[in-house]
Amino acid sequence: MLAQLSFRERNLALCAAGLVMLVGLLVTAVGWQDLIAVHGVIAALYTAGIIALLLKHRKAPAPSPERLKEYYDDPTKIGILLCLVWGVFGMAVGDWIAWLMAYPDATFDAAWASFGRIRPVHTTGVIFGFGGNALIATSLHVVQRTSRARLPDQFSPWFVLLGYNLFCLLAVIGYPLGITQSKEYAEPEWYLDIWLVIVWVAYLVLYLRTLARRQEPHIYVANWYYLAFILVVAVLHTVNNLAVPIAVGSTKSYSLFSGVQDAMTQWWYGHNAVAFFLTAGFLGMLYYYLPKCAGRPIYSYRMSIISFWGITFMYMWAGSHHLHYTALPQWVQTLGVGFSVMLIVPSWGSAANALLTLNGAWHRVRDDATLRFMMVAAVFYGLSTFEGSFMAIRPVNSLSHYTDWTVGHVHSGALGWVAFIVFGSIYSLVPWLYKCKGMYSKYLVEIHFWLALSGTLIYLISLWNAGITQGLMWRTYNESGELTYSFLDSMIAMKPYYIARGIGGFLFLTGACLALLNVVMTIKQASRESSRSDASTRAAAVDLPVAGAPQS
Amino acid sequence: MSLIERDNHSGYTTTGHEWNGIKELNTPIPRIVLICLAGTFLFAVTYWYLMPSWPLGDRFYPGKLGIDQRTTLAEQTREADKLKRSWIQSVEAADFEAIYFDNALMAAVNDSGARLFEDNCSMCHGRLGVGNLSYPSLADESWLWGDDPTVIYETLRVGINSEHPESRNAIMPAFGQMGVLDAGTIDDVVTYVRTEARLPVLRTRDASKRLKAGQATYKLACSGCHGTDLKGNQSIGTPNLVDRYWLYGSDKDSVFESIWSGRQGHMPSWEARLEPYERKLLAVYTTTLD
């Protein structure tokens, strides 16, 4: 795989890895008394591994110029594997903390295993590890096909992918040690935030350079969404993480914002992270893999336009609905309600556009679990966006806020929408990438589908019940005008729902393990087959060749 | 590539663009979508018109209805207080004896008292009030300061070893740490106290000698607070050592630790957090636990 890199790219990679290693060692030296040294050492070891691999292949012959006539998919291949490994890990931790809700003693009496420390391990593991790798891997695949252009070089995709995974790894190791800036979904401390900015700008530049090389006159909708995802996440991440570190050799920093401004900044980030990390990018995925798999044209280009601009413009304002009935001035809350309600139609526009695209291919949805994954994803996308706008309305929010309904809502999007579209995309993408007829086992895909669907439904239904029960218990007054239930009463009432949620999560996790197994087996089988026959002829049916490839 | 085709299934034409085999139809936006879009926009604009919404420099548009969440909350709280006032007054007016004989008030104790207990006391004393190691049980007959509701009411008000200026104070000194008694002497006291409490004691050859030594030390150092009969003193909150209830554990090591490092149990003052009627309900509720 590394032999594909030209000599210049190999040297560039060595320099970059060496530089990161140097920084890691420097950080270790400067912050020897601080936990930051742990991060420094891990970064150095991580890059040392990369350097060792590079040195091993340093003397390999120069790659053939023929490679430039094909799309560059090696980073995508690795990205998919990383995505699934992170997925299994993140979901396993998630299921563990789900059981903690019912059996709070399951922490081995260890500080590192307390709920507050491992909860971000779960969220970072699934959102950034699983979701982020899926986005990077598929975006690099999609942008090349829809532009009919190869990635401009072979170094920057690796820098983006491996740099991003270094960020995730350091973040997830840091939480159990207690390294966190306590901002939800933005827990990593200042130095990791800076590193992510560097990686992210490289990602943006790589994406724009590929788009600039495109041989198609128009930019496809999927790329609008991927680009919005990359661009807006850069802005969100930078502003939300503005902070002053107390020393260069220390993990600790203080946020630039305080009080209600900090709360608003965090939810401006938090809500738009849902919008642009967990929605826009995955809509890009939906817009490529669903029509490709169904063999149908997109239902309506005009709907795509309304949906895209509706979402990009209006999501930005809706974050304040996370702070209803708080110290946040009411006018900010009202603005958030208005924009949240206005978001319903653009969101449903995307869901409807996807489902109506399937008209004429419903028999394939019935027969093919891969396409069914994507269909269900579109349905859950519609459900959770409606639910979100509904919960943003103040009186509804007064019931739902602080309850497990919110957790259920997030997972309706995360499991039903994000994970379903990822699995659907991976199941269609892997056979294309490895040039084989299909996944190793169609049967396993089918089992995964039903495990994932039943897991999601059990999860959601139990937490809807839990949330509404909690919300009602917290606002029930007796005849004397006193609260009827103690908080403890509501916790005791939650126990059966929490157990059901743990079971639902376990089913979902089992499905993810099957996906990893199935993908690994497909890759193994493909490498066996490719040694026997020439598979590249079969792949031609899926992809048009790179247009205008350099002839050298 | 730009080639407009007609899709046989839907009957609509494509836009003429194609990306790696993906085409798009030029289907017009369904009327229902436009109606719904207009509906949601109308809702938002109306809502913004009625409620405080857009910023205007250093002020904001206050909304046609003049609603403000802070005034709304204050009004709702006032209304709720008005409803509760009459029975709260009856709780405040009644003395403890009267509460026990008033069915309506006892219903409030069982209802609101139990809720208040779970929300405020259960994290230390347990949901059923049976306590925990270092946290006294309120459901047994052993009381540090007495089981009278007026005493409990006062404890709730000022707390024990708390920051309240009138706090009850009961501190077991760290006899070992402060160098008052050495480890061997403390061992003897432990033996004496545990013997008196009818706990099994290891019978060594010099047992009777040590018991005597322990008794002598006890008289000198401990009896001032715990009494010569070891039964403690509720007026200063010292525990009875021979009533089979052990707040910090009855095993040899725990008793040793109590004497060596001392004990400074902490009960917060609830004066600033709970209303007088709430503390009254809690005091009565606590006496009903068993």
Features:
heterodimer; A: 552 residues; Cytochrome C Oxidase, Chain A; 2 domains; 18 helices; globular; B: 290 residues; mainly alpha; Cytochrome Bc1 Complex, Chain D, domain 2; elongated
Rounded mean pLDDT of chain B is 93
Main sheet overview of chain A: 2 strands, antiparallel
Computed CA radius of gyration of chain A, to the nearest angstrom: 24 Å
CATH architecture of the largest domain in chain B: Orthogonal Bundle
CATH class of the largest domain in chain A, please?
Mainly Alpha
Counting DSSP H or I runs of 4 or more residues, the number of helices of chain A is: 18
Structure description:
The complex is a heterodimer of chains A (552) and B (290). The radius of gyration of chain A is 24 Å and the shape is globular. In chain A, helix 11 (344-357) packs antiparallel against helix 13 (369-391) and helix 15 packs antiparallel against helix 16 (442-474). Chain A has a two-stranded antiparallel ribbon with strand order 1-2. Chain A starts with 6 loop residues before the first helix and ends in a 13-residue tail after the last helix. Chain A has 18 helices and 2 strands. Helices cover 72% and strands 1% of the residues of chain A. The longest helix of chain A has 46 residues, at 487-532. Chain A is mostly helical. Chain B is mainly α and 290 residues long. Chain B folds into 3 domains: 14-60, no CATH class; 71-166 and 268-288, Cytochrome c-like domain (Cytochrome Bc1 Complex, Chain D, domain 2, Orthogonal Bundle); 183-261, Cytochrome c-like domain (Cytochrome Bc1 Complex, Chain D, domain 2). In chain B, strands 1-2 form a two-stranded antiparallel sheet. In chain B, strands 3-4 form a two-stranded antiparallel sheet. Chains A and B meet through helix 8, helix 9, helix 10, helix 11 and helix 17 of A and strand 1, strand 2, helix 1, helix 2 and helix 4 of B.
